[in-house]
Specification:
The chain contains 14 helices and twelve strands. Helix 9 links the parallel strand 6 and strand 7. With 360 residues, it is an alpha/beta fold. About 7% of the residues have low confidence. The protein has a six-stranded parallel sheet with strand order 2-1-3-4-5-11, sandwiched between helices. Helices cover 44% and strands 16% of the residues.
Length: 360
């Protein structure tokens, strides 16, 4: 094992729960002598050592919350802004640790564990549940914008499925019947958004028209998905798209508009000039037929609100999510009742300039 062993690693090898390993390591009541002996033997075999420094630091109350975020996700910037506001209101400070293309999530987390952080707030983490549970055995962990099914990990997230249902409902109300979804793959929230998309189509009697296109989190992922859509021919080609997130949606918009597809309404003079000089491809033919596309993103990040993007999107309530996340972390530290482990925040539709009734 080339990383530091965790409580979860010991639990798996010993065949017990992570909570029980924590009891043994803390020498707390609740485990039999035989279990304690087995757990300690496994811990020695794996080289696991309790983080006594973190335990002592929690007792000293540094009033510092560690936050892990992705620099490539515009919505994480909105969440960090909200976390600063919520923490400042109750006299806490934040220590930030970024996930970058050259710095993975576990390294970002590890750096915070060396600081005097009392709790961790993880924004859309990709780490396995077992790893997150191991962290939660050492200090309070609040995961934001991802569902985690483990009783020791607190969660604050958007109702992702409901958000996609709102997006589909909006497009159906405008008159669209062929609505595709550009997927987020294995990203946090992607499965729930797929479920909301397909469920809403079936509710409207449009299930046979469902089309899920592989996408992702980035502009490049959106651009690739848009190119794949432009290769479709009737009757499968959609008149509207729901997209996993705003960043992916901007890549979609760039390719569609570059190919002369109007978003959302009639083609502009610029689009017509592009068509006149385009190569004879399916995408150019599609544009020359006067086609248009409506596009809905997800997040309502600052990117979506830029005037030249003007993206219709599903807004996540960053202020409420961050307020709840900080409150949950501090409640854990204070030993106060925390209520439901998972708190789900409703999203809302924000209509801007990328949706309209279907052309023709």
């Amino acid at each position: 094992m080339d990383r530091r062993p965790t409580l979860a690693d010991v639990a798996v090898r010993a065949g017990v729960s992570t909570a029980l390993v924590s009891i043994v390591m803390r020498e707390a009541p609740g485990a039999s002598a035989a279990t304690r002996e087995r757990v300690r033997a496994v811990a020695d075999e794996l080289g696991y050592r309790p983080d006594l420094r973190a335990r002592l630091l929690r007792r000293s109350r540094s009033r510092l919350l560690g936050v892990v975020f992705g620099v490539q996700h515009p919505f994480h910037g909105d969440l960090v802004d909200g976390l600063y506001t919520a923490a400042d209101r109750i006299g806490y400070e934040l220590a930030l640790s970024a996930v970058t293309p050259g710095r993975d999530e576990q390294r970002a987390i590890s750096s915070l564990l060396q600081d005097r952080c009392e709790a961790l707030v993880l924004l859309g983490p990709q780490a396995p549940t077992a790893y997150l549970a191991g962290l939660a055995a050492r200090l309070p962990v609040v995961v934001v914008a991802r569902a985690v099914r483990h009783r020791t990990v607190d969660v604050v997230r958007t109702d992702d499925a409901a958000g996609l249902e709102q997006a589909v409902d909006h497009l159906v109300e405008l008159g669209h019947r062929r609505i595709a979804h550009i997927d987020g793959g294995r990203a946090p929230g992607a499965a729930e958004r797929r479920r909301g998309y397909t469920g809403a189509l079936h509710r409207h009697g449009l299930g046979r028209n469902a089309l899920i296109v592989p996408g992702g989190l980035t502009e490049d992922d959106g651009a690739d998905a848009a190119r794949a859509l432009l290769e479709l021919t009737d009757p499968r080609e959609p008149t509207a798209l729901t997209v996993f997130n705003d960043r992916c949606a901007t890549g979609v918009l760039d390719v569609l508009r570059g190919a002369g597809v109007a978003v959302p309404g009639a083609m502009s003079e610029r689009s017509e000039r592009i068509n006149q000089h385009s190569a004879s491809s399916r995408s150019a033919d599609r544009a020359q037929r006067g086609s248009a596309m409506s596009v809905v993103g997800f997040d309502d990040s600052r990117l979506a609100r830029l005037s030249h993007v003007d993206l219709t999107t599903i807004a996540q309530d960053a202020a409420t999510m961050t307020e709840l996340a900080v409150a949950r972390a501090v409640a854990r530290l204070d030993g106060a009742p925390t209520g439901e482990r998972e708190q789900v925040v409703p999203p809302r539709l924000v209509v801007r300039g990328t949706t309209a009734p279907p052309a023709g």
